[in-house]
């Protein structure tokens, strides 16, 4: 008995489905079929069953490959197949897998050396590490975490794009205002020893616990937010 492909096991699914949209056509390439099956079915439709439908004025084509990530060579093969119909213009290749990879990609942190002074704003898509202080009137905004290797006296807003798991860490907390996601808190609500000397203090971090701002010692961070690679 010969080997059966995913498409052969489920004949209700075709390797290539063509749908019309307002801006042109969408070619849906079934991600459970082999690439050879896709090319064969594509050529059958282009030169056979769909030939008249695909003949006419210029049409923009979007190719969707689902969880399959097409190689450059595979994309070129598809371009060559569509080239036989000069009116079909490939607008883009779309891959759900590629979009997921892009959305989950870890952005490198921004390292800022120096003091963030009054009126100065540091903003970054990702984590921010301040090697210095944040003075009153200074603002630091990050879509990820904020780490201050000094004294935090200004405004720090972590998770500013909606990340409720973001944290704000500092050697010494004396902030004008802390924000995580859309939760706001001021210094008196956060520190019991706000006037203590910087020397000899332990680094702390602010985080959201049941929707409220809380502060804990930095060495407790792991128990509150395990590393992503160990949670998987």
UniProtKB/TrEMBL annotation:
Residues 16-93 form the Septum site-determining protein MinC N-terminal domain. The keyword Transferase does not apply. Residues 112-214 form the Septum formation inhibitor MinC C-terminal domain. InterPro entries: CAP/MinC_C, MinC, MinC_C_sf, MinC_N_1, Septum_form_inhib_MinC_C. Pfam families: MinC_C, MinC_N_1. Keywords: Cell cycle, Cell division, Septation. SUPFAM superfamilies: Cell-division inhibitor MinC, C-terminal domain (SSF63848). Interacts with MinD and FtsZ. Cell division inhibitor that blocks the formation of polar Z ring septums. Rapidly oscillates between the poles of the cell to destabilize FtsZ filaments that have formed before they mature into polar Z rings. Prevents FtsZ polymerization. Belongs to the MinC family. This is Probable septum site-determining protein MinC. It comes from Tumebacillus amylolyticus. The lineage of its organism: Bacteria, Bacillati, Bacillota, Bacilli, Bacillales.
